[in-house]
Amino acid sequence: MDQTWIAQLPLSEISQIQPIAGGDVNLAYRVDTAKGPYFLLVQKGRAADFYAGEIAGLKALSAADVKAPRVIANGQIDGDAYLLLNYLMQGHRGSQAQLGRLVAKMHRYYSPNQKYGFSEAYQGASMTFENKWTDTWSELFVEQRMDQLRDALVDKHLWTNSALKKYEQVRSIIVDSLAQHKSKPSLLHGDFWGGNHMFLEDGQPALIDPSAFYGDREFDIGCSLVFGAYDQEFYSAYQEAYPMAAGYEKRLNFYSLYLLMIHLEKFGGMYASAVNNIMERIIAEP
User: Fold this and answer.
1) For 94-107, how does the pLDDT look when each residue is reduced to its tens digit (9 = 90+)?
2) What GO MF terms are annotated (predicted)?
């Protein structure tokens, strides 16, 4: 990194900055200082408020007493947005059951206004979700998320007319199913897959890189199934701590579909068959 840029960070006695893995949206660095390490995220060419959603999400996780990175500073340097967090030291192993109970604890923290949505929009590399407050979960999930993804996939020529017709069938099933399901606006991680948790040096679980909002908690669990990162110990502990309502097995497919559509929009046709397969599964299930 440019030394002039680094010098403008609100840190003193920086000894080293090294690139590290930080997801597919941001540049990420470990910043070593005399007072210890920090975690730095940078988004080129964006205003400081690019990170407003992540900051609000981290603060919500803290309010829910869920272990997560703590915000140190946020701003813009030479036209680039940055977010500075404390550095969580990773351990080698931890309990999936403890992680399941931590997620259940997060899901018992509810929207302060009893609505679905969030105070800040989600901003990703290619998509923005406004997170406007709604009275029902279906309005937020189907109208603000799924339909927007549908339009993006059509605009990018990633969906044929056949896929679009299949989506409309699935959409009708989702709307009907959610109308019969009693939701509560829980605090969600919002991007809960295997790369967005860690175990600390003492073995305790922590959640990282949230795309938080308030919604039906089955959203996080459905997303968690896509890449197979969590074992039965996780799901059993979650169910024991906060059981999901009858019929959840079918509804979880809705949220797995959502995450796969996100990946299709972001990474292209390599996810087309997975999206098609789960749509067919939803249609085929009674």
Assistant:
1) 999 999 999 999 99
2) kinase activity
Reply yes or no on domain 96-284 having CATH 3.90.1200.10: yes
How much is the pLDDT for 124? 80
- Per-residue pLDDT tens digits for 221-268: 999 999 998 999 999 999 999 999 999 999 999 999 999 999 999 999
Q: Which residues are catalytic?
A: 191
Rg (CA), the chain: 20
Task: Work out the pLDDT band at 23, boundaries 50, 70, 90.
Answer: low
Q: Which residue has the tokens 């949220």?
A: 255
Q: Which CATH architecture has domain 3-86?
A: 2-Layer Sandwich (3.30)
